[in-house]
Design goal:
alpha/beta; Inosine-uridine Nucleoside N-ribohydrolase, Chain A; eight-stranded mixed sheet; two-stranded antiparallel ribbon; 13 helices; 12 strands; globular; binds beta-D-ribofuranose; binds calcium ion
Length: 315
Amino acid sequence: MARKVILDVDPGIDDAMALCMALFDPELEVVAVTAVGGNCSPEQATRNVQAVIEQLDPPRWPRLGAASPPDDGLPVDGRHLYGADGLGDTNFDVAERQHLHPSEKVICDQVRDASEGSVTILALGPLTNIARAMARDPDLNALIGQIVMMGGAVSGPGNITPAAEFNVYCDPVSAQAVFRSRSTKTLVPLDVTNRVVLNYDIFNRLPDVSTKVGRFLRKILPSAFRGYRRQFGLEGIHVHDTVALTAVTHPELFSTEEMAGDVETLGELTAGMTVFDRRQAPTWRHNMDVVTDMQTDKVTDVIISRINAAAARAG
Ligand code: BDR
Ligand code: CA
């Protein structure tokens, strides 16, 4: 039976790639795609979720959820990498839609509608919606099967400030609430996601423009390459969110360790930093599994092969 997943996303080019992979994966049932502000504003994220679904037109459309701003506003966005609209300035048209429910409500409804422990939430953006869903329904933690989150850094530097990873930095208060919650969770931090770098060769390995997935990715990806070159001087791109998705679909390629993690919400230099009690005699209690290693080449191959499989299924 396919595994039920909710994808919470701030598209974002790597979020959009993860959606391509997940929406056509026969081993996953994507019950909802919920938008969150991060790489772009909440309104734009909602629009982008619609745009991705409309462009790809999966056989079963998931429920969609609308994003709203985090309580303290968004301190930053991802235009430096992904363009002003988050999808490489492609500005896809979207159909007029009726009012969408807020993302946190959609998450609560889908978890409640499914049998206990059967839903995995894959959080690929700031943790705003997940924290709000937990606050809205105090029983939710016990009902969710697992939360897999792309975010944070354990040993290495951040990617938006010296100390902080982008998703956590966007809404540290929500990230702290989720880290401290009594839910079953796995963190996929930058330490591992940074190890997958796609170079221009990817264009020879992607599906061609006769397929929906190929057309879509070939429109959005060039902008990410320009952003990475401009921002980091890199001739390649990271695809963090596709690595986190692969940790859900191919856990055998990843190693995890139990850790005690928390989030700095106030630091002048360290807001959004993830902190782990790795002292010789720790006093914090373990509260999550953290991915510490992976078979990088195999993960990269899975990402590319899943995109091609999605293109073959999507037509
Ligand atoms: C994370 O930040 C975003 O820019 C990406 O989509 C990814 O989720 C990486 O730090
Ligand atoms: Ca993201």
